[in-house]
Amino acid sequence: AQSVTQPDIHITVSEGASLELRCNYSYGATPYLFWYVQSPGQGLQLLLKYFSGDTLVQGIKGFEAEFKRSQSSFNLRKPSVHWSDAAEYFCAVGESYNQGGKLIFGQGTELSVKP
Amino acid sequence: DTAVSQTPKYLVTQMGNDKSIKCEQNLGHDTMYWYKQDSKKFLKIMFSYNNKELIINETVPNRFSPKSPDKAHLNLHINSLELGDSAVYFCASSLNYGYTFGSGTRLTVV
Predict the structure, then answer these.
(1) Fewest CB within a 10 Å sphere: which of A13, A36, A84, B58?
(2) Distance from CA of A96 to the nearest CA of B (A)
């Protein structure tokens, strides 16, 4: 069965430090991969997505992610974290439409930013 | 113009009541979803409709009944509400793997 694992429940980084959030997926076919961010009390905002092509994907707010098929990973990175980046981050894989087309989410990683 | 709008944003109700959450999208997407986010923030699919046809019905109690009058609307009706139904419910729509989420409905059952 398809699944997404985010091994880190909670990460704390200092403002200005670099960030990497881990995501591993299990999916039989070529995955459609997504990263979303959820600020407290808010909805889900798409940061970036990977469908095919260049394995390094640029997103909004200075985020990027790298697809590594050999490691079944799609880790999210940011070179310098801002206090406003504190939020919950979700990795997701999109099922094919003949399976329903739903997004399967990881458990989420809560990011805290120290001043 | 909100792309995916849900109403109400907050819903506080007593156990045993029946309530509905409405969702509308103006993106022209052909597939709509309901997700439940529990207290640990885990997001789980409940239902999916494609052009008004039910595609996905995960193991959700029969008390939950989705209705899609047309492909721009997907409503969620919940009968006999229980404490465990307290959660945030997100509506979403998609077309060609472009997903858009509503801002969520926080349901609190007391």
Answers:
(1) A84
(2) 9
Using the predicted structure, report yes or no on whether residue B18 has a pLDDT greater than 90. yes
Question: Rg of chain A over CA atoms, in angstroms?
Answer: 14
Q: Which residue has better confidence, A41 or B17? A: B17
Task: Give the minimum alpha-carbon distance from B56 to chain A in angstroms, rounded to a whole number.
Answer: 6
Q: Can you spell out the DSSP letters for B16-77?
A: T--EEEEEEE-S--SEEEEEEE-TT--EEEEEEEETTEEEEE-S--TTEEEEEEETTEEEEE
pLDDT at position B89: 97
* Statement: residue A29 has pLDDT above 80: no
Contact A103 B40 (CB under 8 A): no
CA angle B80, B83, B84 (to 5 degrees): 100
Return the pLDDT at B1: 67
